[in-house]
């Protein structure tokens, strides 16, 4: 069953068009990887799905999540979807953590903004999410401020924040780039587990090793257009587009 259906999506930042007729689907239990060079529009696809665009952006097309047209929802309805139904891990964790609050209170806040729960329940959900995100000694880290954590740990806090409400879909923009190999493996294992729980992930990555390890399907983006789409094995064994061949030969 289709969890997310994106059809003929176009995006303009002021006069400049950056997405051209982008269409793809994400099924339940699937990890879709988006690959493409810097500036090809990968992050813009995720920001458009969650409607986190600047006021000067213009969008046409359709983004259906479980049959609901997200592009037509009010901001209030979108708020109830962001973080709860659809989680997001951004590229630069420092930008999304508030320096004035402990990381534990920020993750709990995400939980409490979507569920009527007491402090104890929120605390337990927070510790569980931190463990799943591969944070060692989560009870200690819970009380720390972002500046007291390394870049890799901050990224894992963002991942915990994205999964604390157990969303059906996680959008992850280069989530493992700042992490060392063992933590990276743990995060990829977390994404694989999400598939088994009937959830799905859209993963932006430059790393074809990551695609091979967890991806089910891939879309290749070039200058805002989908130039190739297919199952991971098909793309690796038989890339059709010159651009995909070039990306593959670069690794
Ligand atoms: N908020 C914005 N306002 C104006 N232009 C933007 C904005 N965000 C991105 N762009 C432009 O849109 C195009 C696509 O950018 P986007 O960040 O989506 O690409 P990307 O493939 O994710 O790149 P990267 O891998 O470097 O993150 C680029 O030309 C970029 O300069």
UniProtKB/TrEMBL annotation:
Protein name, entry field: ABC transporter
A Pfam family reported for this protein in Swiss-Prot or TrEMBL: ABC_tran
InterPro entries with a match to the protein in the record: AAA+_ATPase, ABC_Ni/Peptide_Import, ABC_transporter-like_ATP-bd, P-loop_NTPase
Primary localisation category: membrane
Domain ABC transporter: 4-248
Keywords: ATP-binding, Cell membrane, Membrane, Nucleotide-binding, Transport
SUPFAM superfamilies in the cross-refs: P-loop containing nucleoside triphosphate hydrolases
PROSITE patterns: ABC_TRANSPORTER_2
GO MF assignments: ATP binding; ATP hydrolysis activity; transmembrane transporter activity
Bilayer topology term: Peripheral membrane protein
GO CC terms in record: plasma membrane
Similarity comment text for this entry: Belongs to the ABC transporter superfamily.
Subcellular location: Cell inner membrane
Native source organism of the sequence: Aquifex aeolicus (strain VF5)
